[in-house]
Sequence to fold (924 residues):
Amino acid sequence: MTVCWLESLTDDSLPLAGSKITRLAELARAGLTVPTGFVVTTHAFKTHLAGTGLAQALDAEIARIKDPHDIAVLTEHANHIQHLFDLHSLDSTLATAITEAYEELCDRRTALALPVAVRSSATGEDASDASFAGQFETYLGLTGAAQVIDGVRRCWASLFTPRALGYRRERGLSHHDSPMAVGVLELVNARASGVAFSIHPVTGKRDRIVVESSWGWGEAIVQGLVTPDHFEIDKSDGRVLRREINSKTVVSTFDYQHGRVVEAPMPARLRERASLDDEQLAAIVTAVKQIEDHYDYPVDVEWVLDQQRRAGEPITIVQARPETVQVTTAKATPQWDVLSAANKYVFNKK
Amino acid sequence: MSELVALDEFVTDEWYPGFKPGFEHAAWSIEPFRTFNREDESRFWFLDFHWPRGMTPLGLIWCEDGYTWGSQLAAETLPLPPGYGVACRIAGTHIYGNGIDVRSEYEVAQRGARMARNLPPILQRFPEIWAERVEELTSALHHFENLNIASRPLRELWQPLFEARRFFKRSFEIHFELMYPLLVNYIGFRGLCQELGIDPAEIGKYCQGYDNKILETDRELWKVTAEARRLGITDIFAANEPENILAALKRAGGPAQTWLGKFDEFLGVYGYRTEGACDVYLPSWLEDPIPPLGTIRTFLQKPHDFDFDHARAGAIDEREAAVEQARSQLSRAEVEAFNAGLESVRHANFAWWNDEHNFLIDLRSTLPLRRAALAIGEAAGAERNDDTCFLFWPELRGLCNGTRTWGSLRGIIKDRRDYYDYWYQRRPQMPKVLGTIPEHVNDPVLIEIFGLHHHFFEGIRNAGKQVDILVGVAASSGLVRGRARVLFTADELHRIEPGEILVCESTSPNWTPCFGKIAACVCDGGGTLAHASIVSREYRIPCVVGVGTATMMIKTGDTVEVDGGKGIVRVIRE
Fold:
C-alpha cells in the first residue's frame, strides 16, 4: 500500500504511517480538527529504495562512515546521500499513486492546485526522541503534483542528515528498522499559528497552558526566527495569567509565485499587534486540554488558526506529541506551609 | 576567596577607661558580650547601624541584657535551627555583631523538630500573645513612672535601679521572642512569592498600610504643628534655633502659651520615647523636648501639612492593587498558596509590628533605668545630670551601698566622657566590616534586616574610589532628584529641610518624623525589612538601602537622584 488516507489509519498504523501522521489521525478520531490528507507510506519508501538500487548504495555509503563523532565526516557522507536521492526519480507506479492521491485531495477541497504541507513522519526510535525534533524536513505550501513528489523525496532524504547518521551509528541502529513515511496534508490558510504546551516548558508548572503565537504560518516560530506572543492560561479556570505581546519582525507567508511558504519581513501594522484574541486563545486551550486528556500526559502541540475560522469553531491541530523533556522537571504547585517555607527560604534547607 | 579586615586596633580587654569586667559580669546563654580578642579575627563582624552614636558604660547593658541575652535566649527557645542568636562585640564604643551558627547537623535537626512544634502556634496566637506582652510592658512602665524616687538617699536607690534593669532585660526577651517568629514567617512568604515568579520589589507592598504607634505619633506631631499654624506662632519657630524655642514660646505667652498646653498634652501621651533605640544615655522627649520642637520647626517650613490620610489611603490602594496584580498572574492553585501565605503574614505582620514594638520597647524600655540612674547621680551630687551613664554596674552598686564615693569616680567619668566623644567623632570612619569577610552571607535575616547582600559587599570593596552610581536594594519605588543631607546620628535630624534627600547609615524609629519632609532616603545598610524600607513605603517616598558606603561617597549638598524602584542612586557632579 503506497498511499493511505488519514481516516483509514488505526492505532496500529505506526510502522506504515510513522508516528507524526499516526498521532494526527488518532487526534482526528478523538474529535479534534486536523487537516485533510494522506500519507506516503514506509512501504513506498522501501519500494523506492529497493527498486532504484538506492538501498545498496546507501548501505555501502553508510558502511564507509569511520568516525560517527566527527561532524565533518558525517556531513560529507550525508551530502553524498542527498546527491544519490537527487539522482533517482520515483518510478512511474509510485509517482502515479502520489499524483492520483494529490488530485483527489484537490477534489476533496475543491481546488485546482491545492497548496499542501509535506511532513516527514519517522518510525522507530528516532521518531519519539525529542533530540530529533525538527531534524526531519517539513515543506509548507508545495503546490502541484510535481512539487509534492519532489517534497516526498526530500523528506525521505532527510532521514540521512549528519546528525541522524551519527545517532544511529552510535547506537548500532539501522535506517532499515526506521523507514520514513511522509504526510501530505492540506495547507491550512493560516491567519496565525504557533505552538502550545500543557506544561510550562521552562518552569515545569503543570497548572497552566502556555501558548506562543505569531501571524501567518508556524515555521518562523518553530525555527526560532521570530519572538512570538506569549500567553499563559490557568488550566483550571481559563484566566489569562500572562500576556506578552512581542515585536514580531518575521512572518512565514505564502509565496504565490513559487507556490510555497517563505519567510518575509512582518508588515509594520502587524508587528506589535496581538496575534490572538481571547476567544481564539480559549479555543487553543480547549484543544490542548483535550489532547492532554486523551494521552493522559503533558503534550506539546502545533496549531493553526484558519483564516476561514469563525468564533466558536475549533482550532486546527497540525502536530501533537508527548512532552518528554519537561516532565522530568514537572513541579507540584507550591503550597503554603510556614514550616516548609521556613526550612526552604529562611534556613536554606531543601 | 575571603578577605581580611584586621581588627588589631580594637583588641583590648578594657571596656572603657578604668573598667575590666569581672567573671560572670552578666548572664549569657551561648556566648557573652565582650570586647574583641585575637581569635575574633577569624570570624566575620559587621558594624551595627542601629547605634551610630556608640554606647556609654551604662548603655552597654543593652549589649549584655538586650542584644546578647535576648537574642540568644529567643534563638534557644523557639529555637532557630541553624543559629544561636547574635554575638556582640565593641570596637571603642561601637557595636559590631554577627549571627552565631549552629555547626552540628544533629543539633540543627533537633532544633528543627522543636521549632516545628513551637512556631505554628506562636504565629496563630500572635495577636493574643502580643496583646498580653503589650499589657505587661505598659503596666510595667506605668509602675516605674509612679515610683517616687526623687530625693531618696543613695542606699534606697539600688533597688529601683535593679528592678529597672530587670524590666529592661525582660523587654528585650519579649522583643526577640516575637521578632524571630515574625521574621521567619515573612521571609518564608517572600520565598514563596519569588517561587511563584512575583517581582521581589512588589512583595514589600503586601504588608504596608497598617497603622502603628509610630505613625500615630507622627500624625499627632503634625496635628500639633497645624495647631501652631492656626495660632499664628510660626514666626517664633522660624526665628529660633531648636534649643531656644521652648524659652521663646514661654516668653511670648498668649497663643504660644496655649500652644504649649497642647504640646504638653501631646508629650503626655507620646513623649515616652528617646531619639534612638535601646540607649539609656538618651533622654525622652518629656525630659528633653528639643527634638520634637525642632521637628515641628521644620514641619512649619513646608507650605502644607503632611497629609497622613492621603498617604495611608495611597499605601492601602497600592497594597490592594499589588495583591490583585499578583493574583491575576497566578493559577488558581497558586492563588490558594499565595492567599494562605498572605493571610499568615498579615495575621502575624512583621512590617506592622516593627514600628509598633519600636514604640513600646526599643524607644522606651531604657527610661526607668535612666530615671533611676539619674536619681542616683542627683543623690550622689553629680555635676551633670547624666554622669551616672558613664558608670558600670558594680560602680553604681558601690555608690549605692556606700563602698564607693562620688569623689573616687569623678575623674573616671571625665575620662570616659572624653573616650565616648573620641569614638563618637570616629564613627564615620569606622570599618563597616571586620575580621574575615565572606564572599556572601546566606542568612536571610542578616540579608533582609542588615542588608548584607552582594550590593553591600560590592559597595564596601569600592570604598575609597569615587563612584557616581551606587547600587543597593530597591526598597520603595519612585524617582526623585534633590539635595543630599548626610547624617550619622539622629542628633541633627530636626535640621533636615523639606525636600532634602536623607543619606545615612540607617534609620531608627526615632527618625520617622523626618519622613514627612524628606524627598527620598538612602542607607548604607539594610534590606527590604529594614526600618527605612518599611517607613518609606508607608510615607510613599523612594528609598534605596544596603548601598554599602553612601555616607562616604555622598556629601551634604551634593545633588543626587534616587531611583527606588531600581535600587540605583546617582551622584550628579557638576
User: Anything to note?
Assistant: The first helix of chain A runs from residue 14 to 29. Chain A has a mean pLDDT of 91. Chain A touches chain B at residues 203, 205, 207-208, 234-237, 239, 241-242, 333-336, 338-339, 341-349 (CB under 8 Å). Residues 3-186 of chain A form a domain with the Dna Ligase; domain 1 fold (CATH 3.30.1490.20).
